[in-house]
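Worked Example 4.2. Consider the chain below.
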Amino acid sequence: MTDLERFQQIVEQFIADRAMSPTEFGKQFAGDPLFVFQLRKGREPRTATRQRVLAAIQGERAA
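Applying the procedure from the previous section yields the following structure tokens:
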């Protein structure tokens, strides 16, 4: 499994666990309402973007 596939899996699991819409996730965590939809179509976010999204997810889980 590649880093991108792991990242996508984490995002999808978080969305499912929180019953959150992909649009809401994108707005809140990436500043882009289309983020998840584009990720599903093969978008490869920059490393810095992935790190920022993962840090935000960790922060939400810790809260």
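Residues 17 and 54 are 15 Å apart (CA to CA). Residues 3-18 form the longest helix (16 residues). Compare this with Example 4.1 before moving on.
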